[in-house]
């Protein structure tokens, strides 16, 4: 069992990590979820009118906008589902790993080869997919969610169809395909190439003094170039995760189905504008490819590469993990 000091340090490090990461993750999710069409639109009379929603051009501009409109509570949207999932993982590690492993941070995914790693990652993704969907929706909803009333929050975040048949979350069009494609590229592509070029990095127990500088440079270039593939997949995954599943398709991204909630959601006091614009679900994305095409057609190529530099940093960090 962990001692009191070890428990205190573990809980303290978890709290500090969440305090720092939740606002940054929330800004990233909102920036990538924000719908900003480039073209002109038609009003009900058929007249051409420009898009009037907010225009956010950078990750840091989104971070400041969230704070300006919703304050600190807005920055910590998504805290409770993130805290819950993190606590479950931490509890699992405390139960199944030795104290020394936890104290020295020696936990890592199983070293079972490329196929074993792929199977492990896909299983972990399937387990966490509902939590990912709920967290992304909690971050992007314009409504104020209570921290300690999950039933109320789920009535806001999930449609009556999703609450009656929660497994339909796994059938969200294109979402599983986007997640599997991301995992497969990282493991079958980057990890497999790393094992071929730099086995010393793939197996830390091997001597590292003979690492080829040329092979290392090639792998780093490949990791950086992977941003071109992984960043769009991450944007698409967020767009698909916040697209809710309805029994009927004629409802937009904020309204509930008519046979569902009668209660009104709480709004932020004094807020007269939404932080981000959400794409209507009257014409939903029908899959991964359709989502990519519509983003390009409606918002331009740049929308697929929002905060691409964060993906690039993740690729560089993953190259040596």
From TrEMBL:
GO annotation terms (biological process): nucleotide transport; transmembrane transport
Pfam families: Mito_carr
Protein name, as recorded: Mitochondrial carrier
One Gene Ontology cellular component annotation held by this UniProt entry: membrane
UniProt entry keywords in alphabetical sequence: Membrane, Repeat, Transmembrane, Transmembrane helix, Transport
Family matches, as PROSITE patterns: SOLCAR
Location of the protein in the cell: Membrane
TM regions (residue ranges): 79-97, 117-134, 167-193, 213-236
Cytoplasm among keywords: no
Entry membrane topology: Multi-pass membrane protein
Primary location group: membrane
């Amino acid at each position: 069992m962990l001692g009191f000091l070890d428990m205190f340090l573990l809980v303290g490090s978890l709290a500090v990590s969440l305090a720092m990461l939740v606002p940054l993750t929330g800004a990233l999710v909102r920036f990538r979820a924000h719908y900003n069409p480039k073209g002109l639109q038609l009003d009900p009379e058929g007249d051409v009118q420009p898009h009037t929603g907010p225009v956010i051009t950078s990750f840091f501009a989104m971070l400041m906008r969230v704070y300006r409109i919703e304050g600190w509570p807005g920055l910590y949207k998504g805290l409770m589902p993130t805290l819950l999932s993190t606590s479950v993982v931490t509890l699992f590690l405390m139960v199944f790993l030795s104290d020394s492993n936890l104290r020295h941070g020696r936990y890592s995914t199983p070293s079972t080869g490329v196929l074993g790693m792929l199977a492990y990652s896909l299983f972990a993704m399937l387990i966490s997919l509902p939590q990912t969907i709920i967290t992304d929706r909690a971050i992007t909803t314009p409504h104020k969610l209570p921290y300690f009333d999950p039933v109320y929050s789920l009535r806001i975040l999930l449609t009556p169809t999703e609450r009656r048949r929660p497994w339909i979350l796994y059938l969200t069009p294109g979402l599983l395909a986007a997640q599997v494609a991301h995992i497969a590229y990282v493991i079958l592509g980057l990890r497999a190439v790393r094992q071929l070029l730099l086995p010393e990095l793939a197996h830390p127990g091997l001597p590292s003094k003979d690492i080829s500088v040329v092979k290392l440079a090639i792998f780093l270039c490949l990791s950086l170039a992977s941003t071109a593939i992984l960043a769009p997949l991450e944007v698409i995954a967020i767009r698909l995760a916040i697209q809710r599943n309805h029994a009927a398709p004629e409802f937009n991204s904020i309204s509930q189905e008519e046979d569902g909630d009668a209660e009104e959601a709480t709004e932020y006091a004094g807020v007269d504008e939404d932080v981000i614009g959400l794409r209507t679900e009257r014409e939903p994305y029908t899959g991964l490819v359709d989502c990519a095409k519509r983003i390009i057609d409606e918002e331009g190529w740049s929308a697929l590469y929002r905060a691409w530099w964060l993906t690039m940093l993740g690729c560089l960090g993953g190259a040596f993990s």
